[in-house]
Amino acid sequence: MSVAIEPITGRYMQVDIHGRPHRLYWEEAGSGIPLLCLHTAGSDGRQYRALMNDPAVTDRFRVIAFDMPWHGKSSPPEGWQDEEYLLTTDGYVDLIMSVSRALELDRPVVMGCSIGGRVVLELAWRHAAHFRAAIGLQSSAFVQRYFDLAYLHKPHIHGGEVCAAYCYGLVGPGAPARHRWETLWHYMQGGPGVFKGDLHFYSIDGDVSKSLAEIDTARCPLYLLTGEYDYSCTPEATRATAAHIPGAEVTIMEGLGHFPMSEDPEKFRGYLAPVLDRIAS
Fold first, then answer.
1. Quick one: how far is CA 38 from the chain centroid?
2. C-beta contacts of 244-249 below 8 A and 24+ residues apart
3. Where would a tag sit more exposed on the chain, N or C end, judged by fewer CB atoms within 10 A?
4. What DSSP string runs through 37-87?
5. How far is CA 221 from CA 109, 217, 258, 272, in A?
6. Strand order in the sheet with 9-17
7. Of the candidates 247, 249, 241, which has an alpha carbon nearest to the alpha carbon of residue 140?
8. Is the dihedral of CA 136, 139, 141, 145 positive or negative?
């Protein structure tokens, strides 16, 4: 029997977030510069599985991905059954900073995709001194709602399947089937109303447009990488965002969609590697 043990370790932390105790799950691999990875709306840290298995990355970077509360292996806080989950800008920023400080990360690089790609703009603006650099995947200042979010949480609709169906069209057309369907499986497993709650930040609360010009890329270099096949965060939206941030660097990734790190990790690696090389040097 052939067995391959991956170099990824997973642990739980108990940490107060927004003044409430939480039990958060995180995974990591490698050593060196901390690389804190933020997953997309409605999914979890498994999206960075390939990055954690890439020795070209983990030889120089300590890759860390945590499941947000309500996501993956992280539970909601006590009393969740009496409230509606809604992700807000301040709450999201506070969560990330709480995790970074709990793990005592020394000037980490932060990389996020989709909602994570949005919040890295907030982090680069609010906490430039804390981060060595910020990498935004599928990052733009704001996205207008283009469908009724209510359909993501209705008792007569299978929430996991409708979330995956929505995300299917956001995956690049050339993505290998095994990666495409693993990416979608993570969405099928999401808790009731969680994807909808994340999109409250993405398309209602999380507009960072007015703060873009105040991002200081001399203090926190900013790299924006966007897949060409993405109708949610389009290449045009990323370029328009970068136009307001002096020093921001934009790369449009050919053939990739909204989930580059999980839908086609081999192709994504070719775009990420030069950015990591610059940060490491």
1. 3
2. 244/141, 244/209, 244/212, 244/213, 245/212, 245/213, 245/215, 245/217, 246/213, 246/217, 247/217, 247/218, 247/221, 247/222, 248/215, 248/217, 248/222, 248/223, 248/224, 249/221, 249/222, 249/223, 249/224
3. N
4. EEPPTT--GGGGHHHHT-HHHHTTEEEEEEPPTTSTTPPPPTTGGGS----
5. 10, 4, 22, 15
6. 9-17, 20-29, 61-66, 33-38, 109-113, 133-137, 222-227, 249-253
7. 241
8. negative
CATH topology of domain 9-280: Rossmann fold (3.40.50)
Q: Which helix (H) or strand (E) holds 250?
A: strand 249-253
| Domain boundaries of the chain, sorted by first residue | 9-280
For residue 91, the tally of other CB atoms under 10 A from its CB is: 14
Tokens of residue 128, six digits: 């430039």
